[in-house]
Amino acid sequence: MSMRVTFLGTSGAVPTTQRAPSAVLLNREGERLLFDCGEGTQRQMMRFGTGFGVSHLFVTHLHGDHILGIPGLIQSWDFNGREEPLAIHAPRGSRGHVENLVHAGGYQPSYPVRVHEVSVGATALEAEEYEVRTFETNHRTRSMGYALVEDDRPGRFDREKAESLGVPVGPKFGKLHEGEPVELDDGRVVEPEAVVGEPRPGRTFVYTGDTRPVQATVDIAENADLLIHDATFASDNAGRARQTAHSTAREAADVAQRAGAKRLALTHISSRYAGDVSQLAEEAESAFDGESFVAEDGQRIEISYPDAE
Fold this sequence. Notes:
Layout: E1 3-9, E2 23-28, E3 31-35, H1 41-47, E4 54-58, H2 64-67, H3 70-79, E5 86-91, H4 95-102, E6 113-118, E7 123-126, E8 130-136, E9 144-150, H5 159-164, H6 171-177, E10 182-183, E11 189-190, E12 204-207, H7 215-220, E13 226-230, H8 238-244, H9 249-259, E14 263-267, H10 278-287, E15 291-294, E16 300-302
Parallel strand pairs: 3-4, 4-5, 5-6, 12-13, 13-14, 14-15
Antiparallel strand pairs: 1-2, 1-16, 2-3, 7-8, 8-9, 9-12, 10-11
Helix pairs in contact: 9-10
């Protein structure tokens, strides 16, 4: 089952000619989830060919570079004849502000748009095979991050063992793999534990939005397959990072290292690094043992299962 992340906007508060404001699209087997929606997100979706069919939008906080793309995207969907409902998830206390964006200029979408306020530490979306959970972040306004955490998958099915026990090839294989015991023609019962290995972990995707480094990110990003973390500044601007409630690349890398994340994407890059992000990349590489990179607009990342061969 595929999971692909496309970085639609990776700039800090001030966009550049190469970086648009914050937006990340996650495509999980055709289901598209959008995290933040900075100005121009709809054009970035067209430019990078992600498709328009987003079912859920998750807003980390209400600063303009994370939400000003909402009115244009809402109206473009309407012009394209959208009928499917849209769910927008946002921090507690923000419903009225988000609804003002949805109805900017007195606009009334012809399809349902529902705004859901979500508390920190709650489940924003509970789907059949995964959850999107919220976690505490530390910014200059009410904010939170999101983590998509997949359910465990069944263990590997040992076909040879099943056949040796007399299980006939066919539907009983599937029942065993789904955790159901089966009865053979001679009356014997084969339990799934006899032919199915231990459950295998799903994938974990974590997106912080704007934040200082916090323990909550370390906790929820434990063994994460991809952590997307605020890295607005390099360490020589650590004071500015503290003042504006952002993180440095080294601080983001330290969070990823403590969490044991597999990959770290640095995002929300200040315009002062428009010409050269090598300092950010080097700081992260020096503090994180896994794979790290400075995300670029249009960059696509495939997230594989932890046990993928």
